[in-house]
């Protein structure tokens, strides 16, 4: 597996992953285009002959960073891909000297919450009904560098 810059041509490859993992709450291609146009920090995890098995993104301001998304194909999970993507995002925040990184995660996504906790993310709030159309709450987690 290798981590590389997410490019516009990867969007078509991430859409089936989005649909499988997030269903009606998946991002649209336009949302990914917008993230790339805003020059947010995005990476893909590639395997074999450039097969996209995961992706992640980070938006930054001078004071804080927000993990926009981390997703790994179901058959690629539990092999360190999510961890490698998160480490790439955190390394970029550190490189920029950002001291605070935040993220939102579904309250019912315990595996992701455990991963984030191993990187010192702690719960700091709840966003009620954040994920639509399921109306699922999001747990806001924060990490100080």
UniProtKB/TrEMBL annotation:
Q: Where is the signal peptide?
A: none
Residue runs in coiled coils? none
Q: Where in the cell is it found?
A: Cytoplasm
The EC category is: transferase
Q: Which UniProt keywords apply?
A: Acyltransferase, Cytoplasm, Transferase
Which reaction equation describes what this protein catalyses?
N-terminal L-alanyl-[ribosomal protein bS18] + acetyl-CoA = N-terminal N(alpha)-acetyl-L-alanyl-[ribosomal protein bS18] + CoA + H(+)
Q: Name one GO molecular function term.
A: protein-N-terminal-alanine acetyltransferase activity
Q: Which InterPro entries match?
A: AcTrfase_RimI/Ard1 (IPR006464), Acyl_CoA_acyltransferase (IPR016181), GNAT_dom (IPR000182), YpeA/RimI_acetyltransf (IPR050680)
For this record, the Gene Ontology CC terms, alphabetical, are: cytoplasm
The record places domain N-acetyltransferase at: 1-145
The EC number(s) this enzyme carries:
2.3.1.266
Role description? Acetylates the N-terminal alanine of ribosomal protein bS18.
Q: Record's PANTHER family?
A: ACETYLTRANSFERASE, ACETYLTRANSFERASE YPEA
State the family named in the UniProt similarity comment for this chain.
Belongs to the acetyltransferase family. RimI subfamily.
Q: What is this protein called?
A: [Ribosomal protein bS18]-alanine N-acetyltransferase
Q: Which organism is it from?
A: Paractinoplanes atraurantiacus
């Amino acid at each position: 597996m290798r981590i590389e810059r997410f490019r516009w041509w990867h969007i078509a490859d991430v859409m089936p992953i989005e649909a499988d993992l997030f269903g009606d709450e998946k991002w649209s291609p336009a949302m990914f285009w917008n993230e790339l146009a805003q020059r947010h920090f995005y990476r893909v995890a590639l395997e074999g002959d450039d097969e996209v098995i995961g992706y992640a993104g980070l938006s930054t301001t001078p004071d804080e960073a927000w993990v926009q998304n981390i997703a790994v194909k179901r058959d690629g999970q539990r092999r360190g891909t999510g961890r490698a993507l998160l480490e790439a995002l955190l390394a970029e925040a550190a490189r920029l000297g950002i001291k605070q990184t935040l993220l939102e995660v579904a309250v019912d996504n315990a595996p992701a919450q455990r991963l984030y906790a191993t990187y010192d993310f702690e719960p700091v709030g709840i966003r009620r009904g954040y994920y639509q159309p399921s109306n699922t709450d999001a747990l806001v987690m924060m990490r100080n560098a």
